[in-house]
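User: Fold both of these, please.

Assistant: Here is the first one.
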Amino acid sequence: MSHLDPHGSAEPRGWDRPDAPAPAPVPALPWPEPEIDPGRWDRRPAALPDAYAEVPARSRPHADVAAAGEPAAMNGHRDRPDDSEYPTAQLEPVRDVAPEPEPARSPGRRQRGRRRAGADRPPTQQPVPSRAGRNLPAAIAVGVGLGALIVVPLFFYRTAFLVVVAAAVAIGMWEMARAVRRSGAHPPLVPLIAGGVLTIGLAWFSGPDALSLGLLVTVLGTMVWRLGDGPGGFQRDLTAAALIAVYVPFLGGFAALLAAVPEDGDLRVLVTLAAVVLSDTGGYAAGVSFGKHPMAPSISPKKSWEGFAGSVTAAALGSALLLWLLLDVAPWWGALFGVAVSGAAVLGDLAESMIKRDLGVKDMSNLLPGHGGLMDRLDSILFALPTAYLLLAVFVPVLE
């Protein structure tokens, strides 16, 4: 009996009607082996092979790989002519390669790059740069070395101090000429250095008037030298040369004027350098500890008014004591000397920072580790030298 149509029709379904056509026979599938033809599922082979019987070599394309020491295991399957029936049998078998043993390490020595952090061995800490952006230990070491290079010849053989000043001026002029080339200016270096050394010598032997004469000779000699290169860029190169001549040898010549005083020239140089060092140290300490209000953010972002106050205070206190002990100057005049020298030193530092920012350089050179170039150390000293010379000429007049 046929089932009823779920949609309400009482007629039998198509496969229950007597006049329905017979279904078409299902075509045989192309099976690869007649033993497993789907039409012969009811057939069973006469005898099943033993599960542990040896499989023929032909049905095992990689059987020769398992046999260690056989020739076929070494050259693949090229010895059998009928390997074309098994395409993968023509490939070289993949063999497991044992990893290379690690080199032996001595028990007391660690190889580079193999240290690992653990509970008993914390990770290596990277050095944290100081807030001043410098390598502080290297800066201190170089500063002590420069101080010894100045003080030793100053007190033991003053003529050697003249050589030190001339060498410092020559190196500073080279750094300045190298830096201003970034702006397109090319001041002639040979007449600049020759005129700078001449300026220092004239100041040492002949006094302030000869210092001004040396500046005039340096600028004129540079102008004549530059005329030989043609008119192109003449004004630009001569302006850069005049700036270098005034900034380095003329201001540096006041160190020769201070040291040339026969009675106490070494002490005058010493108190001037001590005031500059106290100003830098006090400014650094106060700026790192209390610096919050930028002094000139567009020129030197790291300078603060708190640091400037520390510079003036340290220089005033130290200079009051030093001038009283060494030059017999009243402490209040010594404090005034320290304030003036500290202000000039900070002004010189800001002036060079403005020049470097305009040229797009961080340091004048990398000659001194932790400091940059020599001009990065001379910037504050160069402005402090004429200030100290004028004040000491008033406080401690030179006896003729």
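And the second sequence with its predicted structure:
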Amino acid sequence: MTRLFHISDIHFGLEDRRALDWVAQCIAREKPDAVAITGDLTMRARHREFAAACKWILALDVPVTVEVGNHDLPYFNLVERFTNPYRRFRAIEAMLEREIDLPGVAIVPLKTTARAQLRLNWSKGNVGTAALRHTLAAIDALPLGTRAIVTCHHPLVEAGTRGKALTRGGNRALAALASRNVLAVLSGHVHDAFDLIHPTSNGPVRMIGAGTISKRVRSTPPSFNELTLENGQITVRVRNLEHVSSRDMMIDDVPEDAMPPRAQGEPVAPIGAVPEIDPPVY
């Protein structure tokens, strides 16, 4: 059995210190095999925010992988954003482990950020041809029998959450990943947890999203995902900072479309504080 903690959207600069301490205590006490952080380490990609993120991550004392989020690209320095947008992120990435040895599983990154896009909102997701090719090549190079868990910042398609990813090239990427028999795609960005199976022309792909541990909460409290991998299956448990159960954030079973029942006219709520999610295995 392998346990992986999936964290996203820490947003140093607008971090929630109580949530950070809680997550660090959970990691210190439970010692997961690895921690995967799916982007937005910072709020505005300031040097001091990256320094704070680096200090916190290195203190966890477990193997950690990080992926870049849209908030991790230079926000104020447009010259750097266009000429060397990932320089600040690479500085912290270099201090962490890119290759983590997990039994039968490999964590493979997929970049969904862009320095600029042909639309006004550059914070939304974009899977470029080169980025997808790089990820597929990494998956194809894995040892025989090793399954891939793909980590990216933006959900590749919409997940029914209040926040939107609007990822360009996401459907194409999911279809390509389905052809590689990917175990799951982990992401963040929308600040609420979700777990769903998305159909593609090459078969279904499981998408798992983590909430935020920053002050920028949306529909649910600060949270992270605990993933248990056993016998080729993933069980997901959403761990919330708030210890008082809320029926508005809990469902007993994941319905076929991975959305909880709702009253007529009520806005769709994401999967937030689910004690344990065990969707069908494909």
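Residues 2-249 form a domain with the Purple Acid Phosphatase; chain A, domain 2 fold (CATH 3.60.21.10).
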